[in-house]
Structure formats: C-alpha cells, structure tokens
Amino acid sequence: MLSTYEINMTTNEVKEYLDISHFTFNNLMKQGQLNPINKDTWRLDGSFLFKREEVEKLKEELEVEGITLYQASKTYHISMYQLEKWIEEGELACTIQEHRNRKTKFVKEDDIRELVQQIERKNTIYT
What we know:
The chain has helices at 4-7, 11-18, 22-31, 42-45, 52-62, 69-76, 80-89, 109-126, and strands spanning 8-10, 49-51, 67-68, 94-99, 102-107. It is an alpha+beta fold. It has 2 domains: 4-62, Multidrug-efflux Transporter Regulator, Chain: A, Domain 2 (Orthogonal Bundle), CATH 1.10.1660; 67-126. The strands form 2 sheets. It has a 3-stranded antiparallel beta sheet. Strands 1-2 form a two-stranded antiparallel sheet. A hairpin with a 2-residue loop joins strand 4 and strand 5.
C-alpha cells in the first residue's frame, strides 16, 4: 500500500516535476489549476500538499507539441523571418498555443528538419 508521502507531493516536488518557476507555480494556484489538499493546514504541514494524480494530469495539459519558432531558429540556424515566411506561404504548418502566459507559435521539428534538408540539397546542386 502506498503511503501518504507517495500519493501526495509537496510544493517543491510539484515545481521540480512540472519544471516551472515559483512565479508560474503561484499563477497556476491562483488560476485554480493547482489545488492543494491542505489549504487550511498548510502552515502546520510545512508546505502545500497536492495529489500526485492531479499534478500528473496537469503536466499532460501543460505539455506542448513541437518547438517554438525561436527554438527552431536557434537549433537550425534559420532566421525568424524565414520561418514566418514559410508559415505565410503554407510550406510550414504551425499551431498557436498558450505558452508561458503568451500565445506562441509552435512548429513540428520534423517539418523544419525536412525543409532545411531540402534547402541544403538545393544548395549542394549549385555549388
């Protein structure tokens, strides 16, 4: 049988598990996405306690699919302008998701890798 410690997570464990800052943690609590089970007695317990299954469910909701345009530009050495141009022309599909309290464009890494390889093939023909 699981002990209470294994079923529940402390504040620091939640922040580490979700890989979020203290500021983000507080925002999630204010928004009601993180609800402690010991809201009234947290001072006696030393920390807020959260149900592990709820934290795992929240992690799945916070997961983002793909990478941001900024991450893509740094990883593949492509300008942000070029990425935006590909999206505008329809060569690259993107999804807009809430990320770090902002609406951010995400692209699939495989799609970018494919476009970069196509460009490299074209460039090798001309050199």
